[in-house]
Amino acid sequence: MMRKLFFLIFFLIAASSFVFSYERILSFHSDILVLATGELEITESITVKAEGNEIKRGIFRDLPSHYQNKYGLRHKVEYNFKEILRDGQPEQHFVKKSGPGFIRIYIGNENIFLSHGYYTYTIKYTTNYQIFLEDEFDALYWNVNGNNWSLPIETLSTCVTLPEGSKINFYEAYTGFEEEKQQNYESYFDDRRLCFTTTTVIYPYQGMTIHISIEKGIIKEYDKTKKLIADNINTLIAIIGLIGLLVMYIIIWLRIGVDPPKGIIIPQFEIPKNYSPAIIRYIYKMRFDNTVFSSAIIGLAVKKFLSIDEVSKNLFILRKIKDPENLSKTETLLMNLFFIHDFNIFEIGKANDPNVKIAIDKLKNNLNSDIKSGYFKTNGKYLIFPILFSIGMILLSFISLGFEQIFMSIFIILWSFACYAAINGLINSFSQQNTKSTLLLGFITIPFVLIWIGLLFLTVHFGGSLIVLALHLLYILVNVLFAYLIKAPTINGREIMDKIEGLRMFIRTTNIDEIGNFFVEDRIQIYEKYLPYAIALDCEQIWTKKFERLISAAISNNSYQPSWNRSYATGISASSFSSNISSGISRAVSTSSTSPSSGGGSSGGGRGGGGGGGW
User: Fold this and answer.
1) What single DSSP character describes residue 202?
2) What percentage of residues in the chain have a pLDDT greater than 90?
3) C-beta of residue 36 within 8 angstroms of C-beta of residue 138
4) Does position 295 have pLDDT exceeding 80, yes or no?
5) Strand order of the sheet with strand 24-34?
6) pLDDT category, 162, cuts 50, 70, 90?
């Protein structure tokens, strides 16, 4: 019996020793004096039990340096520390920035470790611009301790002394984790003094926020507009710069980017003389792309200068049928590039094939030198100053931002480019009906976009401004938009573009039954003749659909098989045939030419707040 009693006593002593020895905050009390000027004089008294775990040298206190409204605009506040004490005696301390939107005051000497025991820290400071100045009332909405303490608080309390003549409209408090609205507190009111005390332990990352509303006329007003501008000078700079950029581009566009007036567009069944499908595509898009190259190949095949063997979905072999004769300069150039040194075959589809890349570069250079200046101007030189201006304004708008926000903004802008590239690649792959590539890019693009969304949330969470970030992205969009808009056809270019639009209208709108009214050739010959131009003008599906039954019937009774193309696939429809050959060559060209890569309220709401811990 005595042995059992002895073990019971020993267990109770050990348990009580553990209970009384763990590290915690025994009490956190805050006295807040509200001055008629709007300033707050605050004295925080924090009694802790130090065991050398978190509290080694002393404690630290985090305080917000700014807040954001629902529009993402900043409201900055200031702190002036008057007195820092430990057990009633001045204590060494220093203040430094603590992450985005916070300052941290470290109390203690980094070279001196505390003995285990009880300590009371006193922090006296003043702060301004903390009162909410509304139209019908003024309010103190104050997070007493901040919800970021990693230690439990056994008793949390605050007393608020209001200015002379204050009339209280409403008061309340909220306890618990951030966004919670528990009301585990007691309060009492005495003249101008309101006190709140929690009735339960405040666990780590919990807190208490008080809300006191008083009639207007007591707290001195300040110019909120001036304050808003001063606190958000970076946003103002970004807005002014964006307006300046738009004005600059509009002036440039009015001077050199306005297109000559269009003529009357009518269906044009005559193909402009000496204009190959590649030239038509290049002028139509006012730029070079893979379809310029693939439409040129199919145009040469239809004219029986080469044949196309479709070995697989991404591999094509071009076979020479005859030497170039009576061809356009670009078509002759390609024939000579494909079949040099008496070689009569040319492969497209091998990864990173230098021969394909050389052919593409030569064709592109030829079109740029012979066609571009005569038909349209990209006006790229007019982009240099606006782009440099944009970079300068973005850098200037980083004024007053911390390193973390600057890093986050730059990172998100760069990540936005990556997302754009991924989405653009996905769209191109889908349009080319490349299932494997589309699935692969889809798996890449979705995480990229999700990470981008997550970065936006992190920006807000860590005190960044979504408005400034949105403005930075707008700078990019405006530059991209006007890079497209300031391209302009010449007068000669406008005339040929009208004919190209007319040809496109003919391909899109003409009924197969009407074709006999224009041509004496066989309808299938007409189909083949216009197919490269339909590909060049992004309407091969529409063009082929008109001949679907005719070609399908001819293929099924073996009366038609294009001599210029042999496909590895059999039993395909006419529409599938046209899309397979055009998109397949575009895919193969991409593969070959790509280089190898490397209110109300809640706990945690209002002003004040922050948190603390030991160090």
Assistant:
1) B
2) 24
3) no
4) yes
5) 89-90, 79-86, 117-127, 40-50, 24-34, 153-161, 193-198, 185-190
6) very high
Whether the CB-CB separation of 565 and 310 falls below 8 Å is answered with: yes
Tokens 């003094």, residue? 193
Instruction: Using alpha carbons, select from 586, 21, 611 the residue that is nearest to residue 281.
Output: 586
Q: Which two tokens stand for residue 291?
A: 């379809």
DSSP line for 281-348: HHHHHTS--HHHHHHHHHHHHHTTSEEEEEEETTEEEEEE-S---S--HHHHHHHHHHS-TT--EEEE
- In three-state secondary structure terms, 49 is strand
**Residue for token pair 């507190």:** 185
Query: Which tokens hold the place of 320?
Result: 């020479």
How many angstroms separate the first and last alpha carbons of the chain?
47
Given phi > 0 = left and psi -120 to 50 = alpha, else beta, which region is 463? left
How far are the Cα atoms of 61, 107, 145, 413 from residue 84, in angstroms, in the given order? 11, 8, 17, 43
Work out the average pLDDT over 552-568.
69
CA separation for the pair 207, 42 (Å, rounded): 17
What confidence score (pLDDT) does residue 33 get? 94
Q: Give the contacts of 399 (CB within 8 A, at least 6 positions apart).
A: 233, 234, 237
What is the pLDDT averaged over residues 587-598? 58
Helix (H, G, I), strand (E, B) or coil at 180: coil
DSSP SS3 for 368: helix
Question: Residues 402-430: pLDDT tens digits?
Answer: 666 667 677 777 777 777 777 777 776 66
What is the token pair recorded at 31?
């006295």
Nearest to 444 by CA among 460, 424, 473: 424
Q: Write the pLDDT tens digit of every residue in 460-506.
A: 666 566 777 788 888 888 988 888 888 888 888 899 999 999 999 99
